[in-house]
Amino acid sequence: MRRHRFYAQPDQISNERVQLDREQSHHLARVLRLGIGDEVEVFDGEDHVYRCTVLQIDGGKTKLSIDARLSKSAEAPVRITLAQALVKGEKFDWIVQKATELGVSSIVPLATEHADLRLGADQAARRVERWQRISLEALKQCGRSRLVSFTLPLSPQDYVSSRSPEDGPMLVFTERGGLPLPELLHGQREPERFAVVIGPEGGWGESERSLLQAHNGRFVTLGPRILRTETAAVAALSLLQHLLGDLSVPETPIS
User: Fold this and answer.
1) N or C: which end of the chain has fewer CB within 10 A?
2) 43, 73 contact by CB (below 8 A)
3) Structure confidence by residue, pLDDT tens digits, 81-134
4) Measuring CA to CA, which residue among 163, 180, 167 is closest to residue 219?
């Protein structure tokens, strides 16, 4: 039986004790109805996991004792950045949730030419906070222990300008042209990082295609059908993780 999982920042963990914040404490005591003596699992967002016992529940604070450090990880061996075109409604929320479950390490929202969503500075900051919360819940559910990082929305120009050679190949998924991913990766040395770049419903603009190509973007096809952007994101990440072997790695036993 899996233990309930909670997140604590590293500075909330010291001297073999963990103090959960108000939100995590509320979930433990009020939502899950856990009590003194119950065993739980805590991760710190930096790939450290602990087996703990509830010691004290006092209002909005919960104290736990650390019983063991667990030698398990559900993190992907390759770090993947998802650069995803903005999309209206709850679709981007869904993409964040599924991308987190599929093991991405960072998410960059892209304000593309044909994106059907435009955000002001305040709106963008609030959306990023929302996406961080959604990602955290997905981390807790799927067993991961490293936080997903987010940037504020960037234009494609700002995104490619921010990249460095250490960020690995940039795989640009497109509705026209491009190579199948297995063919593109065949025989190449496996890098430690990848970027998966997904365009908007309206497709990439010509200037955006030229920009991505000029910055060594490798155009990839997902077949003859035109996919919605959220479908393309999940399909691309799943295919890449399958080819890298991440989806066939057995679960590490709990210590």
Assistant:
1) N
2) no
3) 999 999 987 999 999 999 999 999 999 999 998 876 777 778 889 999 999 999
4) 180
Domain spanning 79-248, CATH architecture: 3-Layer(aba) Sandwich (3.40)
CB 52, CB 39: distance < 8 Å: yes
Q: What is the token pair recorded at 25?
A: 């404490």
CA distances from 143 to 6, 102, 129, 231 (A): 10, 11, 21, 23
pLDDT, average across residues 168-185: 92
Q: What pLDDT, in 10s, does the model give residues 143-158?
A: 999 999 999 999 999 9
Q: Do domains 5-70 and 79-248 have the same CATH topology?
A: no
pTM: 0.91
Mean pLDDT of 167-174: 94
Task: Count the neighbouring beta carbons within 10 Å of the beta carbon of residue 59.
Answer: 9
Q: Where are the domains of the chain?
A: 5-70, 79-248
Please answer whether residues 138 and 101 qualify as being in contact, where contact means their C-beta atoms are separated by less than 8 angstroms: yes
Q: Which two tokens stand for residue 94?
A: 């869904």
Query: 165 pLDDT band (50/70/90 cuts)?
Result: confident
Domain 5-70, architecture per CATH: Beta Barrel (2.40)
Q: Which of 245, 252, 181, 171 is nearest to 212 (CA)?
A: 171
